[in-house]
Amino acid sequence: MEGCETLDSFVASIKRPRKIIILVQAGWATDKVIESLIPLLEEGDIIIDGGNAKWDDTIRREKELTLKGLHFIGSGVSGGEEGARFGPSLMPGGTPEAWAHLEPIWKAIAAKVDPSTGKPIEGARPGKPVNGGFSCTAYIGPNGAGHYVKMVHNGIEYGDMQMICEAYDLMQNVLGLTPAEMSDIFAKWSEGELDSFLIEITADILKQTDPVTGKPFVDIVLDNAGQKGTGKWTSVNALDMGTPAPTVAEAVFARCLSAVKDERVAAEKILKGPEAMAFTGDKAVMIDAIREALYASKICSYAQGFQLMAYAQEEYDWKLNFGEIAQIFRGGCIIRAAFLQKITEAYERDPNLDNLLLDSYFSEAIHKAQSSWRRVVALATEHGVAIPTFSSALSYYDGYRSSRLPQNLLQAQRDYFGAHTYERTDEERGNFYHIDWPKSDRPQLKM
Hints:
This protein is α/β, with parallel strands linked by helices. The chain folds into 3 domains: 7-143, NAD(P)-binding Rossmann-like Domain (Rossmann fold); 147-400, Orthogonal Bundle (N-(1-d-carboxylethyl)-l-norvaline Dehydrogenase, domain 2), CATH 1.10.1040; 407-446, 6-Phosphogluconate Dehydrogenase, domain 3 (Single alpha-helices involved in coiled-coils or other helix-helix interfaces, Up-down Bundle), CATH 1.20.5.320. The chain is built from 18 helices and 8 strands. The protein has helices at 7-12, 28-37, 55-67, 80-86, 96-109, 145-173, 179-189, 197-206, 217-220, 230-241, 246-259, 261-268, 283-316, 322-328, 339-349, 360-383, 388-400, 407-418, and strands spanning 19-22, 46-49, 71-78, 89-93, 112-113, 134-135, 433-435, 444-446. The strands form 3 sheets. A 4-stranded mixed beta sheet has the order 1-2-3-4, sandwiched between helices. A two-stranded antiparallel sheet has the order 5-6. Strands 7-8 form a two-stranded antiparallel sheet.
């Protein structure tokens, strides 16, 4: 292998059709690199953006490069340091022609899982790809589809992390458990339906001691969480689409609230919560209830994420394979979990499933967990512990299963102050009416 000292010589050294991967900070830096490459490339060459690009930027770039005779693939890449060493999850979007050239490369470097269980294949070593197994990559769809799916993946990741933090908070501040005790609990949870990378690392973090003080490491970490913005993108896009994704949004807002540390320190001295009380129940029973609440909340969060992708495919004229998307999340990426196999199976049973909550496995799982889930939310409220994702997921579940919501009153309010009209429950949909509120007899007007 020989190095190149200039961009010109680098491009000239690559076999055609050239496949050039860009991994730079998303935004203007990506555009600048692409601009520098365009004059050096020839028709049919392929540029691959593996950064955390916004999907609509990818749509724009693909359109611009197509006009110049070049292919452009926007590929989501997830896995962090572990993914870089042992194989990431890869989510490419672009033309099928470009994917045909990239597919053997992406399948070789992607993480591998057992196709039947969804568990990562052990024994991977840096520089020595695993042979066999299911490669955690697949063609997602045209233009920005790959980066869109990666964005939703990150939004789901925000939800997963916040839910774990809420379980930790309840066990610490209500049940009075130590980090070491909680480490053992999370390790046990990772052997069941919550088996996942994030649960596994949580168990490891909680048993870590601070190398400076010898105290539990988690206790000396400042409670100010950073964010890159992809969770916000997911939440804003859900609002733009009119798709409910409250659990992801609450996870983003939880990080925002954590960032106002000085304000919270001051507020603690002024704002009163419930009287302090010791937990007097059976701790083992409540620990298991928290596990069930975490699992039920997780199901709702993923249901919201996959429904958002379903709305996006209609909006952008994509055809997404949701079972396959769940498959490529099973290895390499931050949200990798045995749970994803259940999502794949749900879409194998019904590829046109409207919502994961309607699948027989997930509906039964929540039915089994909901009593514990409700007890946990009530306990947190009683003790003044914030659980935004647990409670929002439960509200989402209760709202989704309700054939009638109180928004009939809301729509009446809108008609009252803004003449926004309403539909009637005793007629077919599509007939709109308005009450002439200022008139004494308040007649109904058909609009």
